[in-house]
Amino acid sequence: MTTAVADRTLTAADRCDRCGAQAYVRVVLESSGGELLFCAHHSRAVEATLKPLSSEWHDESGRLHEREPVPVD
Predict the structure, then answer these.
(1) Which contacts qualify for 28-35: CB closer than 8 Å, 24 or more apart?
(2) Who contacts 58 (Cβ-Cβ below 8 Å, separation ≥6)?
């Protein structure tokens, strides 16, 4: 038997719960299993408070510094 694992990569459709910008961090709260999404700025602002309360801290903010491939003509 094979179990499929859902792709948890954040996309441009995922928005920050604080400001509506593109989300780069997903936080799953340990107590409720609830999920919060944050842009890189707001994730840094709440990290000290929320990280100890989370069961998962999925951070893709490193993608902010990735370069887009340059098209070759």
Answers:
(1) 28/54, 28/55, 28/56, 28/58, 29/53, 29/54, 29/55, 30/54, 30/55
(2) 8, 10, 25, 26, 27, 28
Q: How many CA atoms lie within 13 A of 10 on its CB side?
A: 25
- pTM for this prediction: 0.78
Can you name the residues that pair with 57 across neighbouring β-strands? 27
Given a cut of 50, whether residue 23 has pLDDT beyond it is: yes
Length of the chain: 73
Domain boundary assignment for the chain:
25-63
